[in-house]
Amino acid sequence: MSSAVELKRQAYGKAKVRVTKAIRHTPQWNDIVELTVQVLLEGDFEEAYTEADNSKVVPTDTVKNTCYIIAKKSNHVQTIERYGYELGKHFVDKYPHVTHANVHIVQLRWTRINVNGEPHPHSFYRDGSETRETWVTVSANDVSIKSGLEGLLVLKTTGSSFTNFHHCENTTLQDADDRIFSTTVKAHYNIDTSIGVENIPFDRIFEGVRKTTLDVFAHDDSASVQATMYRMAELILKRFPEVRDVYYALPNSHHFTTNLAPFNLPNAGQEMTIFSPVTDFSGYITATIGRRGNKF
Fold it and tell me: Does the keyword Lyase apply (predicted)?
């Protein structure tokens, strides 16, 4: 081994572990959870890199198997933060040379089918491309948890404007007193775990973050994407003391007014009804909003 180089940091494990669990409350009334799991381990693995010594390497196949074993034994798979914590704690407790277990879980959205106005006991449909996600890092004496949602596509046909922005010699954009506002929401939030993982209402927080995001999007008379996302995060922090900060990334999916003047058709003001969606470029607005005085 050359003395001129050293291993600065390492992590390894298993990615894209697909886990589906049927939760059988009764023989007929079931729930379904579908997850994609990644587990990366950190610790005393330097000699595997520098000396080709595998004696401490927990095989990634073992990591994969453990995802299924813990899912089978756990009563908390529907709450992905709890399942992620159980996974991470298993690796840290079982293998003394593992210092940190980093768990990332993506949950797909299955919604119960209604038949004749009644929820079917064991039939579901895939409810869009939206996902619930969590990132859990467990060490011997600490746990950090970030959760959120991605892929929530929303659109409003009015109640959004963008005016009085900065102009320079490169500006061609015109003021828009009313416009379509469409975005695919990415919202992440860090959770204060000091009260203990078992005491944190993860599902209530997630549903509250999602509902607040949708409510503000719908009701806010939006002056800009920036102003709307700030209002969303402000309300989340007010409603959920367990949330330390909120990160939003909202791409502004443009729908430009189509020029129908050559065809003598009105398409402005109250008669503006035809738009051209633009997929090749979009605005991209991000922000992290936290409690005043807290370290970022």
Answer: no
